[in-house]
Amino acid sequence: MIGLVSTAVRQPAQDGGRPGWTLIVTSIGFVVVQLDITVANVALPEIATEFGASTSGLQWIIDAYSLAFATLLLTAGVAGDRFGSRRIFLAGLVVFGVASLACGLAPSTSILIAARIAQGIGGALILPTSLALIAHACGNDEAARIRMISWWSASGALAVAAGPMIGGFIISGLGWRPIFLINLPLCALGIWWTRTKIAESATYVDGRFDVAGLITAALALFMLTGTVIEAGARGWADPWVLAGFAAAAVVGIAFFKIEAITAKPMLPLGLFRLPGFSTAAFVGTVISLTFFGLVFVLSLYFQQVRGYSPAMAGLAFLPLTAVIMLANIVGGQLGARVGFWPPMAGGMLIAAAGNGLLSFHRLDSAAPFLTIALGLFLISIGTGVAAPAMMSAALAKVERTRSGTASAVLTTARQVGGAVGIALFGAFVAGGTQNIPSGGTLVFIVSAVLLLLGAGGAWLGR
Asked: pLDDT by residue (tens digit) across 290-345?
């Protein structure tokens, strides 16, 4: 098959990566990636007002980022393993910073969506390589890796928690554009410290990019997410929607067949035979699908049904976001003490209970906020405890020289889940504000069922 061959061979740096600085720098990368997810959700009503965007257009502002992100994660992970995770991480920070500037200056919905695609490309270069840099810095010290991943996860959770509040207050005072510009100093700081504090990771020879796999993966993901988004407007039984799902399935099957016969696949199928890897990827998909889909729906609910300002909507997210950071740290400590699987299964059961509680209350203007807050608090605790254990389980049996690829597979599964969750749950509430209460109930029921399946899969796959 056609491939791009790497002829450069590099030796690993002797300094194992200075774990403290590695954690700081990779956390900055994770923060900018996560910050734009929640901040952009809060900004959606303001963007719709300025540009006259439809619900489908608003979903594409979110999904364009997620789709580009998910499409290139595998390629970025392989590139990190073969050319150096530090180098690819740096490139990601540069691309993300430039794209954030373009988002802040966008004159139309289409330009904003294009800039969000560029942000997704930058994020794809950042995320798997940040996890790979952590794996390299910790070496074979599994306890240290769990602790660093829990703190890394907590930094992303802090961005999730702060995003709605920061975004809400910035939007209320300055409009939606500055919410993208705040990434610029963070990216600049990350670039400087990466260049001066972080050593390059180990690489290996004979790097061949799987172009056929990249193209078919991108097409399958594009078809799947785009079809789910359009299903909200056209209806699930529309012939074009059904054809879109069929085409996504055909291309997806072709992708896996290509990976099975390719000598240097972008997705090494042998990873899924490692103990716990497939289970961790499934759990990560479920967590992202339910969490980010819920954030999208709640952004519309708080502002369009309850009439909250962007700042108030940001504060209303606190029960969901404020304790995630602490829950991530607790989940990491539990994983180090009792193993990966109890926090994963137990956390998803708690999150399922939160969604189950919310399913008994319609998302209308009369819904008691204290009940909503309790449900969101349970979801936050559950997903926060499960996430670091899930990531640690995925990397536990992977060779260090393949940590970038393994991280990319895991983050791809999570991003696909997030993109499909936003598209699917957005379709549930599409058609006007009057559809949010009934669609919200369906969101909670579907989330609870998926989380219960995830908990069962985590326990059985241990």
From this structure: 988 888 888 888 888 888 877 787 788 888 777 877 888 787 777 767 777 888 88
Q: DSSP assignment of 406-448, as one string?
A: HHHHHHHHHHHHHHHHHHHHHHHH-SSGGGHHHHHHHHHHHHH
The SS3 call for residue 207 is: strand
pLDDT at 90 over 50: yes
Domain boundaries, the chain: 15-209+266-460, 210-265
State the Cα–Cα distance between residues 337 and 331, nearest whole angstrom.
10
Q: How far is CA 340 from its chain centroid?
A: 20
Helices (H), 84-177: 85-105, 109-138, 142-174
As a whole number of angstroms, the distance between CA 296 and CA 418 comes to: 10
* Total residue length of the chain: 462
Backbone angles phi, psi at 101, to 5 degrees: -60, -40
Q: Find all residues with CB under 8 Å of 80, minimum gap 6, and list them.
A: 87, 88, 89, 128, 129, 132, 201, 404, 408
CATH of 15-209+266-460, one of 2.40.50.180, 1.20.1250.20, 3.50.50.60, 1.10.8.60: 1.20.1250.20
> Which tokens belong to 264?
């240097």
How far apart are the C-alpha atoms of 6 and 392, rounded to whole Å? 30
